[in-house]
Amino acid sequence: QLQLVESGGGLVQPGGSLRLSCAASGSIFSINAMGWYRRAPGKQREFVAKIFNYGTTNYADSVKGRFTISRDNAKNTVYLQMNSLKPEDTAVYYCYYSSGYSSPNYWGQGTQVTVSS
Hints:
This protein is about 0% helix and about 55% strand. It has strands at about 1-5, 10, 20-25, 30-40, 45-50, 55-60, 65-70, 75-80, 90-100, 105, 110-115. It is globular, with a radius of gyration of 13 Å. Strand 7 and strand 8 (about 75-80) form a beta hairpin. By secondary structure, it is mainly β. Strands 2, 4, 5, 6, 9, 10 and 11 form a seven-stranded mixed β-sheet that branches. It has a four-stranded antiparallel β-sheet with strand order 1-3-8-7, with no helix packed on it. The model has no long low-confidence stretch (mean pLDDT about 95). The chain contains no helices and eleven strands.
């Protein structure tokens, strides 16, 4: 079993920044990925970014150049630095963990990000 605890959401003005964190505890596979999806009101969940424990990253086109994902393997924690935020980034952001190269196995509880003036 594995638990994911997220933090860092909130309200920010357009153009502002936020940093999300997600800490994992429990059984960690030697090869794994952690990342983020988001769900905006009335829309389907969409992939945002992921990072493997060996450093490879992937981003959705909509966030490339604005969001940066990183992780601290010693702390089993992943971070999402979000800059130049836009109103369309407003969503509930869900952290996830996947073992190996599988689909997400575990999800965090979600954290609300609201970009509004």
